[in-house]
Each structure stands twice: as C-alpha cells, then as structure tokens.
Design a protein that fits this description.
Strand order of the largest sheet: 2-8-7-6-5-3-4
CATH class of the largest domain: Alpha Beta
Family: Belongs to the threonine aldolase family.
Keywords: Lyase, Pyridoxal phosphate
Radius of gyration: 21 Å
Mean pLDDT: 94
CATH architecture of the largest domain: 3-Layer(aba) Sandwich
Protein name: Low-specificity L-threonine aldolase
InterPro entries: ArAA_b-elim_lyase/Thr_aldolase, Low_specificity_L-TA-like, PyrdxlP-dep_Trfase, PyrdxlP-dep_Trfase_major, PyrdxlP-dep_Trfase_small
Helix content: 40-55%
Strand content: 15-25%
Largest sheet: 7 strands, mixed
Cofactor: pyridoxal 5'-phosphate
Shape: globular
C-alpha cells in the first residue's frame, strides 16, 4: 500500500542502529550479491526479446509458479493493470475486496485503461470468500453490465498482511470456474503468504489465471515485478506492457537482481514475520494500543490508539527519534518489517514506540 512520502530530516538515530525505516518493505536496498550481479549482467534489447538475463528471469519465474510463461514489468501496478486488461472487456465489472490495492493505490486505472468498474466487497481482515463473491456476480442480462473478473490480494495489505487460506482459495477457484470467470491474483507479497502457510508458492496460486508478484517488496530487488500465466496471455501482455510505456531495453541489470530476489531472498521471509510478531506482541502490552494479534501473520503490523492520539503527530515524534512509520487511513499506524531492519533494530524501535505512545 502506498503512503504519503516522508522527508527524512531532523532524525536522531541510535548508535549502531541508524534510522529504522519501517514505512514499507519497498525501501529495501539491493544486497552486495545483487549489486555484483547487476554490474556483471549480460544485457540486450528486451523489446526485441534479446536480453538474456531478462529471459532467464522470466523463465525462472514461470518455472517457480509452474506456468507456461512470465513477463518482467517495472511495477506491480503495471502487472495488475495488464492482467485486468487481458481478462476483461470495456464496460464490465471487476470484483475485489473493498480495501484492495487496485481500489486505493492504482489511480483508477481499472477505469482509465480497461474501461471497467470495480464491484467492491468488504471482508474481515481483507479475506474474501466464495459465499461473498457469488452474491456479487451479475446475471448475464443484455441491459446490465456483466462481471468480467475476480481479483484477490494475498497477502492483503490493508488487512494487515493477512493470508487467505488455501481451502478458501480452492472454493473460489472452483466457483469461478463453474461461473466461467477468470481469477487474478495481486500477489505483491505472495511469498510471505506461502511462507506463513508452509507450502510452495505454486500450490498456493495454481488456480489463478494470472499471478502478479513483486521483486522489490522485501526481496531487495531495486525495481520490478512479474506477471505469470499461460503463453497466450503473456504474449498479449507484451502488447499492453508496451502501450503503458513499459517497453524495456537493456533491463538485464535489473533482472539480475530479480533472479537473486526470486531464488534467495524468498527463503528468509520467516525472519521478517518473527520481527513483526515481536513488535505486535510488545505493542499489545501498552494499554493505549488496540491491535488484532491474529491479523499479524506476516511482515505487517497495523495498530490504533484508544485515546484519540494524533497519528500524524506520533509519526513525526517517532521520526525525530530515528524510527520511520506510516500513518494509514482509517486512522492507524503501519509498521513493515524487512531485510534491512534486523532484530536489534526492531527491539530498539519497539522501545521507542513504547516511550512515545505512553508519553502521549
């Protein structure tokens, strides 16, 4: 989820810890191994299909997700919007959860690019079920619009990094297939979901027609996301990527980092989950804090305050002490753990949070 950027100034950092940036896992920097791979990357013109490193990344992503093909795109938003365009016709509806990324943070591109409108459904912790979805599928009557696509988000950002269980997904996949509807996954953090459930990402996504996932959210790649699906869909996706200005040239310098993100950084996400749990359990002990510990399943922590605290004011006070957090709407504070904030930094951040919240 995007948030208003904060200018990092007047920060008082702690010795040996520095600024503790918990605003998002998009702030991760490339690892030394990534920088070395980027410097040595073999490159070519990707619009011509001649960048060998991009080609390897796309082949590897397709292999990991057990799909026919995949395409490298600059951003997750572009990947989502290409997928929606692939599956829909102008004038149709897309069913999604009411706090989905495609609702709040993709600038109405569902309407602008695909000519569709969103049919949003509120769900506890952001987790949609087939019972909720089927009631929103419109009948095929010539004087009404029709449902063109179901879009899910796993993990669900605004839900607090919550994970949709596999059995819930299986019921949705079966129902959508019976209804003749495609299903897309905004899987920006789907490796977090797979880690939490302890199953391969291919098993967790097998029933989706298309899957988008990010390489730059917590996996340390500097740029990029992937869209995976059938060969026919990905061939068409190249047309839409180009129309959105995503025609890439010597992109192997980015894809080289993406390969390391995909094969190595996905293996350590459990550390981020443990650090998020540390923060959540510590915050839960503060009388002024309201937090749903059951929703803290991956690397996101969202909490609110009982006494009407000025959330922006708290964010400002934390920043001055070297801890960067995000105020989210509806009112609350979001913390996101990632590779670049280790256990020591999270412990220090928790101590500062406790002091500032209790200070009020």
């Amino acid at each position: 989820m995007a948030t208003q950027p904060l200018v990092v100034d007047e920060v008082i950092s702690w010795p040996n810890v520095g600024v503790i940036d918990l605003r998002s896992d998009t702030v991760t920097k490339p690892t030394p191994a990534m920088r070395a791979a980027m410097a040595a990357a073999e490159v070519g013109d990707d619009v011509y299909g001649e960048d060998p490193t991009v080609n390897r990344l796309e082949e590897r992503a397709a292999e990991v997700f057990q799909r026919e093909a995949a395409i490298f795109v600059p951003t997750g938003t572009m990947g989502n919007q290409i997928a929606i365009r692939l599956h829909t016709q102008h004038g149709q509806e897309v069913i999604c959860e009411s706090r989905a990324h495609i609702v709040d943070w993709e600038l109405a591109m569902v309407a602008a690019f695909s000519g569709c409108q969103l049919r949003t459904l509120p769900a506890e912790r952001g987790i949609l079920t087939w019972d909720a979805i089927r009631t929103a599928i419109l009948p095929k009557i010539y004087y009404r619009t029709t449902t063109g696509l179901i879009s899910l988000e796993n993990t669900h950002n605004r839900g607090g990094g919550t994970v949709t269980p596999l059995d819930t997904l299986e019921e949705i996949w079966a129902g959508a297939k019976a209804a003749g509807l495609p299903v897309h996954l905004d899987g920006a953090r789907v490796f977090h979901a797979a880690t939490y459930l302890g199953i391969p990402v291919a098993a967790l996504t097998r029933g989706f027609d298309t899957v988008m996932f990010c390489l730059s959210k917590g996996l340390c790649a500097p740029v990029g996301s992937m869209l995976a699906g059938s060969r026919e869909l990905i061939d068409r996706a190249r047309i839409f990527r180009k129309s959105l200005g995503g025609g890439l040239r010597q992109a192997g310098v980015l894809a080289a980092a993406g390969l390391i993100a995909l094969d190595e950084m996905t293996l350590r996400l459990g550390e981020d989950h443990a650090n998020a749990r540390l923060l959540a359990e510590g915050l839960a002990k503060i009388p002024q804090v309201e937090i749903d510990l059951g929703a803290v399943q991956t690397n996101l922590v969202i909490f609110t305050l009982r006494d009407g605290e000025d959330y922006d004011g708290l964010v400002t006070r934390l920043k001055r002490r070297g801890v960067l957090a995000s105020a989210v709407n509806p009112p609350g504070i979001r913390l996101v753990t990632h590779h670049d904030v280790d256990r020591e930094a999270c412990e220090r951040a928790l101590a500062i949070l406790v002091e500032e919240i209790q200070k009020g």
